[in-house]
Design goal:
Blueprint lengths: L1 E4 L5 H15 L5 H11 L2 H9 L3 E8 L2 E11 L2 E9 L8 H14 L5 E7 L3 H9 L3 E10 L2 E11 L1
Parallel strand pairs: 4-5
Antiparallel strand pairs: 1-2, 2-3, 3-4, 5-7, 6-7
Helix pairs in contact: 1-2
Length: about 160
Amino acid sequence: MEIRPATVDDREPIRRVAREAWHDTYDELAPDTIDETIDDWYGDESFADALEEPGTAVLVAEVDGEVVGFTHGVVHEDEGDVLRMYVHPDHQGEGVGTALHERLREDLEDLSMNRMRAIDLASNDASRAFYERLGFERTDEAEVEFGDETHTEAVYTLEL
């Protein structure tokens, strides 16, 4: 497995991984809502802008030349946020997410991060277990809208 910085050419493989992971994970979201969210978050312009944003790291994991996971993090002052972390369902449980997290943490610490937060839908038990294994604690929750529905997000924090 190779972890490397994402490029504009990774846009389609990243969208594919995100779409497959969301459809596999979030039963409570309508399929159209998932597709619209992925298209919005990973649109051509928004993706290119994210790659250029100061304090940002976007990484992909490749296995045999195929993108099987990615993460997107950003540092504001001394706090790093994991904005996205997805692994294709066919590659979950193989250490891809852990490898992405470790590299993201290294890259964000180089940007003076002292605390790391991750946010995911509270209904995602696999995400909760993943972050807890890495030492994160659930510290807060918030509300987010997808389509016309409101869902609860869990906020996990890791003090460094």
